[in-house]
Amino acid sequence: MRKRTVYSLLLMLALVVALIAVVWLRKEAPPEAARLLPESDAILYLNLKPLRAATHLDRTPVTRSPEYQQFVDATGIVPERDLDSVAFALHQMNNPNGPNGPVAYSEVFEGRFDGVRLTRYLASIASLQEQYAGHTIYTVLVEGRSLRIAQLGYDTIAASNMPTTEQIHAMLDRYRSAASPFSGSTLLAEHYRDVPMLSSAWAIGHVGLPFSEGGHISLFGMQLPLPEDATLVASLRYGPGALHLRIEQIAASEDAAARSTEALNSLLHLFLALQPKVAAQAESPDAAALRSFTESIQIEQHKDRAVLTAAVPLLVLKQLTTPDGADAAGQ
User: Fold this and answer.
1) For residue range 270-310, what is the model confidence (pLDDT) as tens digits?
2) What confidence score (pLDDT) does residue 244 get?
3) Are residues 161 and 273 in the same domain?
4) Per the domain annotation, does 18 fall within a domain?
5) What's the pLDDT score for residue 325?
6) Which of 152, 194, 227, 275 is the most buried (most CB within 10 A)?
7) Does residue 210 sit within a domain?
């Protein structure tokens, strides 16, 4: 009787330990949408649930193009309402001047979808259909490029506009092993540990590729002192009244990180000096929020990394997600 009691206690202890291990692994693992992405040069991930809660994006009026409205009417999918998370893989093209442009994308969307209506819509616009791993891949021509789309599950859609089927096939293959917290691309394995915990949005890899110009990263017409293939880890984490922004450049050495830090600080000081000087009492809430953001920016060196941190007021976020200058505060 005593032995059975000991065995029962040991079994219960083993189950508790196993449960704790599973929960810990799932917590430390990248989000499933990111784990489904194929090998790439960069990954971007966004959890839209906190964004909707902070900005009421799903209740913000949206002006849609006729093609976009046709998609919404046919599928019943309202992205600003139905999408919960999105993940993008960026693929640098060997020939940036070729028909496929400088960057191609693979995407995973998670949310609430009507599978029957979506399948009917994709079948009606597809130029080609392929069966792979028990799923149908629909090829749709978009601006001269082949966009391949497949519904992986009732709540997951994958797509890729790479020239070949390799990436969409890889996502379908990963879907079969997605329950494993260790699945995912090489980029995730190497750098996801650098993403701060509880980040609702993050990006890792050569995330400057879409903004590359002349071999460097350009934003709003301003060239940053960073090469287009710089390895960056960027994240947004919600805090009281603000989003905490963190961007790290992983440099080749501490000396390289020091040079990047000095160059970025010089650019920041120039930007701050060029800001219009407006009396505080004459400022609008929007201008005050933007000034609060710019003044919160700090750039420091942490060993082999140049690190930028800032606090983004929620008012600035609401303005960015409100179309046509609508009153974000009233949404």
Assistant:
1) 878 776 654 444 466 677 777 888 889 999 999 999 999 99
2) 93
3) no
4) no
5) 41
6) 152
7) yes
What beta strand segments (E) does 175-274 contain? 201-205, 212-213, 216-219, 222-227, 231-239, 242-250
Q: Count of domains in the chain?
A: 2
What value, to the nearest 5°, has the Cα angle with vertex 260 and ends 227 and 43? 50
Summarize pLDDT for 198-235 with one digit per residue, the tens: 899 999 999 988 888 777 788 767 788 888 889 999 99
Residue in the block written with tokens 């999105």: 86
Stated pTM of the model: 0.84
Q: Are 224 and 264 in contact (CB under 8 A)?
A: yes
For the cut 60, the answer to whether the pLDDT of residue 82 exceeds it is: yes
Does the residue 259 lie in any domain? yes
Q: What pLDDT sits at residue 203? A: 97
309: containing domain: 206-331
**Are 103 and 173 within one domain?**
yes
At residue 214, the pLDDT reads: 77
148 within a domain of the structure (yes/no)? yes
140 and 257 co-located in one domain: no
Q: Is residue 69 located within the same domain as residue 168?
A: yes
Q: Are residues 81 and 178 in the same domain?
A: yes
What is the per-residue pLDDT for 294?
Answer: 87
d(CA 295, CA 287): 12
Q: Are 178 and 68 in the same domain?
A: yes
Q: How many residues does the chain have?
A: 331
- In this structure, the answer to whether residues 160 and 252 fall within a common structural domain is no
In 3-state terms, what secondary structure has residue 259?
helix
Q: Can you tell me the distance from the alpha carbon of 8 to that of 295, in angstroms, rounded to the nearest whole number?
A: 61
